[in-house]
Design goal:
The chain has about 425 residues and is mainly alpha-helical. Helix content is about 85%, strand content about 0%.
Length: about 425
């Protein structure tokens, strides 16, 4: 098969392999660190877990991606990218060691969160730099394949790192510091692999004219505003993004509820809760995988808005049916269904934005998309912190989320009818 042959060629490219190794080690460390943070907040015996603490942890994990992401490229076009990987990973290794020390000593919560926030903030520069450096190690003919392979492999590495973190935490009798130190070690290995790449190979090219940094940052901010205005003129993309934002909010609220249920309602001890959480995350990931297989066929049959409406409508029916018993078995089924629905809707939304938005604005619109995607999740955690009871059992949350799903489904059905009505007129034009 041509894809298999091209993949073999990619893996024979020495510098591509090294750059991929930097990604795999870095993202596996991210998975370890993020799970360590989450389990410390949710499952540590010394902590009285609250939805507010979970919301704080989610803000630390996700907000740097949104707030720093659009501006990271301005700095990456000025700094040697190999040095970003080297010093960025060394800095994260040192910060992770500081986090481990904080876990071993009585310290204020804000200091722990500040340390974790610094680690996740640096991550945005490393991930953006990995994407920017890829064309320097792969020829243009195989760049699409490399763009598909590298992020997918990185996601799998992060998932594997998270699984390894859960296993080590169980084996070390709940030692969060040991898990964080494993993440620090992986960050260090990633920095050492980065050194094997030639210093100037990954760019950017020296001698290029750069506008002053303040002007570049201001231009980026204005570009985001221009992207928002352009999005307002592209109603199809705007409606899809609005729907996806609400669906992401729903997914975030249910995630917080699931964490509280695993911690208090369904387990007699820490190990039981962690095992249930790992199983739930695994079933949700299986739903994500099935969505990648089913969505192209479903969009071909129903259209993008029809598939969005179907996803939201299915969630509106199945989520309360499976969630209101507050029992582990039906909730695991719900985790799979919601993983499938959320990822299926995201694939359709991505495609809608890619096809509806002008190429000149596409990058800025996707930056806004990234902000909305992560902020919606954090906002859901914040709202859940206000309404969830200590054990996570809340019929109000389940019913409210089902109502939001139903509203999105009806809105997307209405938008689909409008789109079908306008389509013949566009064809005549």
């Amino acid at each position: 098969m041509p894809v298999v042959r091209d993949l073999g060629v990619l893996l024979r490219l020495r510098n591509f392999r090294r750059l991929l190794a930097v990604r795999l080690l870095s993202q596996s460390a991210d998975g370890v660190y993020q799970v360590a943070l989450a389990t410390y907040v949710v499952f540590s015996p010394e902590n009285q877990t609250t939805p507010g603490a979970i919301a704080s942890a989610m803000a630390v994990l996700l907000l740097p991606y949104s707030l720093i992401g659009p501006f990271a490229g301005v700095l990456l076009d000025r700094w040697p990218r190999r040095q970003v990987f080297l010093y960025g990973n060394l800095l994260r290794a040192a910060l992770a060691c500081c986090t481990a020390l904080l876990l071993l000593s009585p310290t204020p919560d804000w200091l722990f969160y500040a340390s974790a926030l610094c680690v996740t903030a640096v991550n945005r520069f490393v991930l953006a730099g990995l994407s920017a450096a890829l064309p320097r190690v792969v020829d243009s003919e195989r760049l699409v394949l490399a763009n598909s392979l590298s992020p997918t492999a990185g996601t799998l590495a992060a998932t594997a790192g998270g699984g390894l973190a859960l296993a080590i935490r169980l084996l070390t009798d709940g030692s969060d510091a040991a898990v964080v130190l494993l993440g620090a070690l992986l960050y260090l290995f990633s920095a050492l692999v980065a050194v094997t790449l030639p210093r100037t190979l990954l760019g950017p090219v020296r001698g290029l004219h750069h506008v002053p940094l303040r002007e570049a940052l201001t231009t980026t901010a204005r570009g985001l505003v221009a992207g928002l205005r352009h999005l307002a003129e592209r109603r199809d993309a705007a409606h899809a993004l609005a729907a996806m934002t609400v669906l992401r909010f729903c997914y975030g609220a249910l995630t917080v509820m699931l964490l509280m249920l695993c911690r208090y309602a369904w387990s007699d001890g820490e190990s039981d809760g962690l095992a249930l959480l790992g199983l739930a995350l695994g079933t949700s990931a299986a739903g994500f995988f099935v969505a990648a297989l089913v969505t192209p066929w479903a969009v071909g049959r129903l259209g993008r808005y029809g598939w969005l409406a179907g996803c939201a409508g299915a969630a509106a029916i199945l989520e309360p049916a499976l969630g209101l018993p507050f029992a582990p078995a039906p909730m695991l089924v719900a985790a799979f269904v919601l993983g499938l629905i959320t990822q299926g809707a995201k694939i359709a939304t991505d495609t809608e934005v890619q096809t509806s938005v002008d190429d000149a604005y596409r990058g800025r619109v996707f930056s806004l998309y990234d902000v909305l995607f992560n902020v919606a999740f954090v906002a859901a955690a914040a709202v859940s912190a206000l309404v969830l009871p200590p054990d996570g059992r809340s019929a109000v949350v389940v019913v409210a989320v089902a109502a939001l799903y139903a509203i999105v489904s009806l809105a997307m059905l209405r938008r689909r009818r409008v789109s079908l009505t306008l389509q013949p007129a566009r064809i005549k034009e």
